[in-house]
Design a protein that fits this description.
The protein has 469 residues and is an alpha+beta fold. It contains 15 helices and 13 strands. Strands 1, 2, 5, 6, 7, 9 and 10 form a seven-stranded mixed beta sheet that branches.
Length: 469
């Protein structure tokens, strides 16, 4: 880590051309590469569905239980004597025609209850899920029972769907949501397995833990930044000019030192944090609710305007104002996601805090990944053209998202952007940018072509106010 800091410090000092400095810089490049290689070991989560198993998903709330049964359509067709195609449209048509019979089959082969009573299950509707391992039919249900004051942490479950006709098959029980055990959006980690000789089991959720729930919600916030392409690109748009200072009449110039640039980034991040914390809290508690049809286009617009500001600065050297203004709308976007998790009101406040903390950790991760490379590049002659090109690209993406979210026209922006930003691919992108930035910096420095930096103290009184960071 000292080598990385040494590289950045060397980049902030003009004329760092001694042999010892060069050795330190090269050691810093190697250290950066090593750190990023370690990050690459992170893998994408595996899909839960094998194509040969059925699944029971349960979501445990304060006083209610919801769930769904998922059948492979091939097995479902074999067992019920139905011709169900594998494609989504064909499967949907076939299941719609026999929906009542299929729901009755699911209800007959699944039961939940305590020692004395079987709980009534109410099935409603269906969905189709196409994955690489096959096509599944999903049948949601709710347990028709009020569990006040709370759902029991231990209850019985019996399931033999598909298994009774195909003994070689098995099934998995997955707890998808349970604040008490810190479980949210779980798709892959099964709690129980059902087989032909083991169709009756006991669900034991252990004692509820506020700490586990809080930690899990923090993880959700981090994950949302990982998969939230629009939020990632907004942070990137704000980060691009953070290593520069706008001075009249010359325009953008390299920031003087590492510390001042980092302070500027901290102000931008803090402003964004304060803004989206306000609206995330208001939206998450249901005090102010704005439809996503309004919020989502504005979030797309925020990316474009932040990028435009890089080309035509209005609040120059005060990008924190841009971060704060549009951060308010990003907070409503975060709130809509949190409300979609079905969190109970008793856990809402701590969930808001944990989710917001997770967002901040994800935001800090983006900054830490990109800031070193941007700081190295700021004094090279490639940075301004790169920033302008990047800002134009961000404006194009934002325009596409705005049209999509406002008019419902799919012009293919997500198909281009999402694969690039799908976690953990941003690590590869950041690694490539960092290594290229290091090489470009060394190339420019060795040829004495680095742009000189002008200390803020040397500016005139009128320009000093503009040069504040």
């Amino acid at each position: 880590m000292e080598d990385i800091v040494g590289l950045l410090n060397a980049a902030s000092v003009a004329g760092a051309g001694s042999a010892s400095s060069r050795i330190r810089v090269r050691r810093g490049v190697s250290a950066l590469a090593a750190v990023l290689v370690v990050l690459f070991s992170l893998a994408l989560p595996a899909s839960a569905h094998s194509g040969e198993e059925s699944y029971v998903y349960l979501s445990i709330f304060d006083t209610s239980i919801e769930g769904r049964v998922e059948f492979p359509v091939t097995d479902l067709g074999d067992v019920l004597g139905l011709d169900i195609p594998q494609d989504e449209a064909g499967a949907s048509t076939a299941i719609s025609a026999s929906l009542t019979a299929i729901q009755q089959y699911a209800e007959d082969h699944l039961s939940l209850g305590d020692a004395t009573t079987d709980w009534n299950l109410e099935f409603e509707g269906f969905e189709i899920l196409e994955i690489s391992n096959g096509t599944y039919a999903l049948f949601p249900f709710v347990v028709d029972r009020d569990f006040a004051p709370s759902v029991p942490r231990e209850f019985n479950i019996s399931y033999d769907g598909m298994i009774e006709s195909k003994p070689e098959r098995s099934a998995l029980l997955v707890i998808e949501t349970d604040f008490g055990s810190g479980t949210f959006q779980n798709e892959a980690d099964a709690l129980l397995r059902f087989a032909s000789d083991q169709t009756e089991q006991v669900v034991d959720l252990d004692d509820p833990s506020l700490f586990k729930g809080f930690v899990a919600v923090v993880g959700l916030g981090v994950e949302h930044i990982q998969i939230g392409s629009d939020h990632i690109l907004f942070v990137v748009a704000l980060l691009l000019p953070a290593v520069l200072i706008f001075r009249l009449p010359n325009g953008w110039e390299p920031a003087t030192r590492f510390g001042s640039s980092l302070w500027r980034v901290a102000k931008i991040a803090t402003s964004f944090t304060i803004a989206h914390t306000i609206t995330l809290t208001l939206g998450g508690l249901g005090i102010i609710e704005i439809p996503s049809s309004i919020v989502e286009p504005i979030i797309a617009l925020s990316i474009g305007l932040a990028a435009l500001h890089n080309l035509r600065p209005v609040f120059f050297n005060k990008e924190w104002l841009v971060a704060f203004g549009f951060g308010l709308f990003h907070g409503f976007g975060f709130a809509s996601l949190l409300s979609g998790l079905g969190l109970d009101r008793s856990n809402r406040v701590i969930s808001l805090f944990g989710f917001n903390l997770g967002i901040e950790l994800g935001q800090i991760a983006i900054i830490l990944l990109l800031f070193p490379a941007l700081f190295l590049l700021r004094r090279t002659r490639t940075y301004l053209p790169m920033m302008k090109a990047g800002s134009i690209a961000l404006m194009a993406i934002a325009a596409g998202w705005f049209v999509d979210r406002t008019f419902g026209l799919d012009i293919g922006v997500d198909r281009i952007v999402t694969p690039v930003l799908l976690w953990p691919r941003p690590l590869w992108v950041a690694a490539g940018i960092t290594l290229i930035a290091s090489l470009v910096y060394l190339f420019e420095r060795d040829r004495d072509r680095l742009i000189p930096v002008e200390p803020v103290a040397s500016t005139t009184d009128s320009n000093r106010e503009q040069a504040k960071v």
